[in-house]
What does this fold into?
Amino acid sequence: SGQQAGGETTPAAAKTQLVLWDQFGADATAMDQMVAEFNEQNTDIEIVRESQATGAMRDVIRTALDAGTGPDIMYYDTGPGFAGVLARAGLLAPLDQAYSDYGWDERILGIARERCTFDGVTYGIGNELEFVGMFYNQRIFDELGLAAPETHDDLMGVIENLKTAGLIPVSFGNQDKWPAGHTFSVFSGNIAGKEKLAQAISGETPWNDEDFVQAIQIPFVDWVAGGVYNTDVNAVTYDDSNLLFYNGQAAMRLTGSWMIESFTDPEFMADPVNFFFYPPIRSDVPIAPPAGLGSGYFVAKAADSPEGAFRFLDFLFSEEQAANWLEGMANIPPLRLNPDDYNISDLLKFTITALNESGDEMGYNIDVLTPDNFNTMMFDGFQEVIGGQKSAQQQADDLEAAMQQAKEDGKVMDITG
It folds into this structure.
């Protein structure tokens, strides 16, 4: 506060408050620390963090932004059906200039910008780099003399050994429906390849192409019939399929890197866990593991101080805050990092190294890039295939029909460029 003539004090200028919505939960200490640190360093801006449940946020975000009652900054799904919808409705601030002004191009990984770019304009910074692959129980593999497989045929050999030992080779629960989408993404990337999968997502290659039929047949027909999974896959929740892996009944778990924190927590998992990307299925197709982002940060077009919001994003993705993301939250920020600089698990180090080495070869997690009607057909249809009520070919035909409908409705996003 300053002194006026006559000894009266003038109040300090009030800070502009910017409301941040995210889904890290009310007890996300590391996130609260980052917000507090930013607020301390900035005399004119105050970030007010409000935790939201993901489902609730999806329900209200567009209405709130339209009405001017929404957040100034939001942490939201980067997919075309989520942030893409807000961008096309003119509710998000473009960030291309901010990328240039703050040097984000040099600091932030390409995938984090690419997945937040719609119709040639960048609207966000993607965060929480994630990919899907096979986690395995190292104790079980050691006891049975097994090694991480280098081909699909090797993996089938490992599976036979595990079955002989009386173990569930791979735990899988699809009551929630979305896990099958991740499995389909793995097999589609490895059978069709990254380029062909991008063409299918963009509505250019048909989903009833034989490669996609095979990507449905192997995991949802052959593996179910062949006893690769636990029984009653459609009745088992995602959490319960993790439980089978935690307690050593299942030796492998095909899921995402978001599980690393739990898989390395002795409270959940007593045995050491290791990881491999699903191995090549065809010798002529390089693997393309599904990779994506947890969510991304976006700034509302009507934000009280867009420049203040950009400064906050610049702070969050500074090298100084990388340790908070990695050590405090077990999240991989979209920065070029040396994992050895941080106090993190070997498994998290391994995944960061893998991302650094394979970033450009990473494939797609299909359901965040495809329209709602397609995803409904995917999720409901895979349950029917697993349950034996539908063939792989029928499901592939239905997926193609859903994509054609989405094209007619103008809801397909071209990701081939």
Q: What stands out?
A: The first strand starts at residue 2 and ends at 3. DSSP finds 18 helices and 13 strands in the chain. Residues 173 and 399 are 22 Å apart (CA to CA).
